[in-house]
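Something for you to look into today, if you have time. What I am after is a single protein written out in full by you. I want to see for myself how the chain folds. Could you add the entry underneath, on a fresh line?
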Amino acid sequence: MDQMDTETVKRVTGALWSEPGLPRELAWVRRLSDVSQRRFYVELFDACRQARATGDWNPVVDLLRTWERRASEEARARMPYRLRFGAGEEQPI
């Protein structure tokens, strides 16, 4: 995501709402917990709506970077459980 400019963010978020599947640039979303994914989509929708109204997409870029870091943190936090219980038997933290 660090490489994304506002035009790329517009394209990726547009694809998210209009095309099936998750754009490859947002593959990290799968690392979020179910609750975090729901929160992410709500926040992203609101940020995109605001960006369309104002023309300023920088807050969307910042939001995506923040959530990408969170996805990495959540994945790291779950790793000891995956190693202990197996990937198919994920345990709550």
Notes: The first helix runs from residue 6 to 18. The mean pLDDT is 87. The chain has one domain: 6-82. Residues 6-82 form one domain.
